[in-house]
Structure formats: structure tokens, C-alpha cells
Design a protein that fits this description.
five-stranded mixed β-sheet, alpha/beta, 232 residues, single chain
Length: 232
């Protein structure tokens, strides 16, 4: 039996959705939007909260809902979000239904600019969206994130026939994994290659990285533990 959403939220209390339901939105000091001093540390801290809940949710289904979060949280004002957005990180990841960055990093609306496709590939459209996040929305952090058990990477490792559209989808993944027969290794290779492609093919992203305006990292999300590990 899967983990019931209600019980999962009861276990954590401090996770974004549960807290948002019981907390008044807090306006950040600058432009009324949440802007952490260190975006990467904010992602890591959010994932730590998520992973703790992920580990204990099934075992502690009877845990009562916490009435207060010991860590102060920032929530973007709905009024501010109605007219603008100022996310502090761009995330390129897989469209797998189990991999939701807002969930995995315990964030609220307006904090992450997310691009998703099967296999987190750096297609032209994905690259254009990443460029928008970095050059227009001015996100100082970009994460490319692969995950365990990726179906797109598994398909790229397999010789079974696919539909023409699916075959086109996995061609860049096949090139990225370079014949790897280990799924975890292949997923990591693919994520690293996607990150490299973004910088190699986009002058906008390369310039932002070179100037220090953009920090690029690569992550690996382990479904069994809920933990995101940095691999670059």
C-alpha cells in the first residue's frame, strides 16, 4: 500500500504544503519574495526535510501533526505571485511522476523554475527554458537532476524497438551514457552530459557561469531514500 498523502504530511508538519495550510504568508525583505542567501544550501536543507519524512512516513503513520515548525519558513505572498515571479533556482529534471522538485526540495510556489522532460535531456526547447530562467528571471542557481530507476535511461540502454518519437527522445541519452550497462552510472553520466551540453551550446548560460552570476550543479535523486546527492 502506498504512503497516504495525509499521513505523510502529518509526519512532517514542517513540509511546505502542510505549513502553508496553517501559516500566514511571510513577505521577504527584498521585493516581497523569498530569496535565500545561499540557494544551494536552501535546496539541500529542503531535501533534508523531505528525506527525513520519506524515511519515516510509512513507519510513523500515527504521528500527530506538528503545530509549529522550529525553522522559520518564508512563503511568497499570493498577491505578489499573481503579478510576478522571482524564483531563486532553475531545475532541469525528469518528467517521471515520482520526481517533483517542489516536493523533493520542500519548496512553495514561486521558489523554483522547473523544466521537465523524460530523461532530463538538454533539448533545444529545454535549453531555451533554462535560458529564460537564468537570463530573464535571474535565478543564480541551476541544477540538472537525474534519478534512480529512470525509465528513459533504461530505454536508452535497451535494444527493444520503440516508436519513432520515443526513439528520437532517447538518442541523445544513448550518446550521453556511452554504452554503460549500470543504470545508476548511466543516469549520472546522462545528467552530467546534459549539464555540459547546456554550457557548450548556450552562450547565455556559459557567460552567466563564467561571470559568477550562475552556479551550475548536477544532482542524483535516490527514490528509495529521498536523498539528492550532488555529483558535480
Amino acid at each position: 500500500m502506498g504512503i497516504q498523502r495525509r499521513h505523510f504530511l502529518q509526519r512532517t508538519g514542517g513540509l511546505a504544503l502542510a505549513a502553508l495550510m496553517q501559516a500566514r504568508p511571510v513577505e521577504a525583505a527584498e521585493e516581497r519574495f523569498c530569496t535565500p542567501n545561499d540557494p544551494l544550501q536552501a535546496l539541500i536543507a529542503g531535501n533534508r526535510r523531505f528525506a527525513e519524512a520519506w524515511r519515516h512516513a510509512e513507519q510513523d503513520e500515527g504521528t500527530t501533526h506538528r503545530t509549529a515548525d522550529p525553522d522559520p519558513r518564508c512563503f511568497n505572498s499570493p498577491k505578489a505571485l499573481a503579478t510576478s515571479q522571482h524564483p531563486w533556482a532553475t531545475v532541469l529534471t525528469c518528467s517521471d511522476s515520482r520526481v517533483s522538485p517542489s516536493w523533493v526540495f520542500d519548496t512553495t510556489p514561486g521558489e523554483l523554475f522547473v523544466i521537465r522532460n523524460a530523461g532530463n535531456s538538454a533539448f533545444d526547447e529545454a535549453m531555451a527554458s533554462v535560458e529564460y530562467g537564468v537570463s530573464v528571471l535571474k535565478t543564480p542557481l541551476l541544477m540538472v537532476m537525474g534519478h534512480s530507476g529512470c525509465g528513459a535511461v533504461t530505454a536508452a540502454m535497451d535494444a527493444n524497438p520503440l516508436t519513432p518519437s520515443l526513439d528520437r527522445l532517447i538518442q541523445p541519452i544513448r550518446k550521453n551514457i556511452n554504452g554503460s550497462s549500470d543504470l545508476e552510472e548511466a543516469v549520472k553520466r546522462n545528467a552530467l552530459a546534459s549539464a555540459s551540453t547546456l554550457i557548450q551550446r548556450s552562450a547565455v548560460l556559459a557567460d552567466a557561469k563564467a561571470s559568477g552570476a550562475l552556479k551550475l550543479v548536477v544532482g542524483y535523486f535516490q527514490l528509495s531514500s529521498g536523498v539528492v546527492t550532488l555529483i558535480e
